[in-house]
Amino acid sequence: MKRLWIMAAVLGGTATPAAAADWRLASVGGVKPDRNASFVYISSQRRTGSEIRIWVRSEWEKPALDGTDGSIRLMEFDCDEKSYRVVAGHFYRGDNSTGDVTKSIGADYAAPDSVMDAIITRTCEGTYAPTPVADPYKVIRLIWAG
Could you tell me if 122 and 128 are in contact, meaning their C-beta atoms sit under 8 angstroms apart? Predict the structure, then answer.
């Protein structure tokens, strides 16, 4: 929850998820020690035709070279094209220190059978985990333990 408040402060006027109870597991991928898990915040979802705008939270088991181990990003998915674009986001470290803030990264395409392909497919089809997750980080710790 602390990370969500940091996101609200960093992104200012951009709408951010206010409560953690609406996160749904969308994808788990990778091989130990490089596993990752991604969640979508379904109440933030806005659909216009084949395009969806939604908050996506990702956590990495092993930190990236810059020390970041997670992100919260407002993303746009084009369900017909299987493409995505980052509208805004924040990459952070485990201690919640400020990472890089991103704004509007150009469109890219999801590789077949990739984590992003799974996230786009599940979001567009509405087939993410049906049970809300109150504490995504707790779920991630269970995934990493397995």
Answer: yes
The CA-to-CA distance between both ends of the chain, in Å, stands at 24
In 3-state terms, the chain is what percent helix, strand and coil (to 5)? Answer: 25, 40, 35
For residue 95, give the nearest of 1, 3, 19 by alpha carbon: 3
The tokens describing 83, both together, are 């493409």
Q: What single-letter DSSP state applies at residue 110?
A: P
**Residue 65 identity:** L
Q: Choose the CATH number for 2-145 among 2.60.120, 1.25.40, 2.40.128, 2.60.40.
A: 2.40.128
Q: Break the chain into its structural domains and give their ranges.
A: 2-145
Cis ω on the peptide bond leading into residue 33 (within 30° of 0)? yes
Q: pLDDT tens per residue, the chain (146 residues)?
A: 333 333 333 333 334 444 457 888 888 888 887 888 899 999 999 999 999 999 999 888 888 887 788 888 999 999 999 999 999 888 887 655 555 666 667 789 989 988 889 899 999 998 877 778 777 777 777 777 76
